[in-house]
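Re: export button greyed out
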Amino acid sequence: MTAQAISALAYSSDAVSGAAPALLAVRQLRLTDFRNYRQLRLDCGAEPVVLVGDNGAGKTNLLEALSFLAPGRGLRRARLDDVCRRPRGEEPPAAGWAVAATLDTTDGRVAIGTGLEAGRSETSLPRRAVRIDGRPMQSQTALGLHVAAVWLTPQLDRLFLDGATERRRFLDRLVTALHPEHAGDVAAYENAQRQRSRLLSDGNRDPHWFTALEDTMARHGVALAAARADTVQRLDAAARLGVGPFPRASLAMAGEVDRWIATMAAIDVEDRLRGELAASRLRDAESGTTSCGPHRSDLAVRHLDLDLPAAEGSTGQQKAVLVSIALAHARLVALSRGRPPLLLLDEIAAHLDAERRMALFDEVVALGAQSWMTGTDAELFAPLGGRAQILRVADGSIAAV
Amino acid sequence: MNGPEIERLIQLLGRLPGLGPRSARRVALHLLKKRETLMQPLGTALADAARAIRACSVCGNLDTIDPCSICADSRRDAGLICVVEDVGDLWAMERGRIFSGRYHVLGGSLSALDGIGPEELNIGSLVKRVAAGGVREVIMATNATVDGQTTAHYLAERLAEHEVPLTRLAHGVPVGGELDWLDDGTLATAFKARRAL
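Workaround output, generated via the alternate export path:
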């Protein structure tokens, strides 16, 4: 029989002084059959958490588990099935997984449970179950009322060099933290867009069907473009001020629909988009694309201190701009929703010099949201001193350092 | 391991909605244990249903008579047509006894990704019913999903020339629902559709 990797850890928050009262903090986290964790129970204080450990120890898995407390597909955009713990040796494979957390929020204590239920019907599509305070929720959008999460991972280091798709995805996560209904609009828009593309590639010519799908695209597309415009405008104002030694940055939406949104009433943009889609059916059928819509927009970011597009800075400068945006966003969300997002910062110390690391830690502590940071080297987090809880992750278990 | 009869039974049961191979085996075993009290009556019921039940040629409802008992009921208002996706939705309406008109069952919703187009749905007969005249209102009771709403919009396009009033069910706060527990999307929809007290 395999040794059960259960680790329990009690951590007294009273021992840590000087931290602002947490506006959002995970106080207990339980994982079941999640990635490399068979069973995990972690009790923690409201302060920022630092996870240190070797490569492959399961640090990012923990951040991924936390990312499931917010709506969306999590930090790895994984399929629900892939999140299940892989069996070792002759163990039976896990049929589901669960993340349960107790959080302190401005509304008081909230219990969130989410995962893939083992007892679900064998034939139905896997669907993420969500419970809040024990009550089953119809959809994961309900999570957005309690938790917003924003993460920076090493994959995002290439964000400004990657394609526009990655930047839109990153932006949409920032937007969802301010406008929780945004994720639903994105999903509905993409669904209708895929259906329209299918009709075009099948050679379908039913004008009423196209009109119906294009109407759905126009309504949800304009709603999502308006939410992006609002977020980018406010984020731009915040990022232009800069945060400590992090660079000042400017943000703007670039795209056809975004230009319309800036100058026309939303209802007119809907009509315009409907018209453009109807007019481009033939062209789209030939090219196999959708030539107009908010799925073609891009997020344009400039490094203001260098006066260069963010993509033209060094790797370290790009990372610094990204951290700048994430911190500006966290401040913005805290201001407008009264509660900052959970910040999940994977391998955050990499590419940052000592001054910026210090500034990041100060900001994270001042933010009032519990940030979770990972790194291989505990030394890098020394400037946090007693202001954070440092935990060592090793092979599916966790212990205080 | 099992005889071919059992394997076939399990295979067929496994195609039922909500049943996978494992639950199909459990159901098969349960039926075999209750041969007299359950399996044989069930077999007879299945055969009777397969022989007698057909889709109504007017509305698509399932019944032993055609036109179905709803379409044949002269006390029901033929001027009101409620369009639903499936017979299950019709049953839900009938359970609540909330509607005294007639129905039209589409048999699903438009979904290009699943290859379900207007020809696969019971749409031509709806257009004919409306074109024949005497209809005062068509109520779209499709699901509040992207596909359901796209289907409703499509039907509105198809029926536009007949100038019959089209309505759809309200979307918003469920009766007995607490606002605090609603997702933002539902709340925003309810807000847009608010009405005077």
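Chain A has two domains: 1-148+341-401, 158-337. The button fix ships in the next patch.
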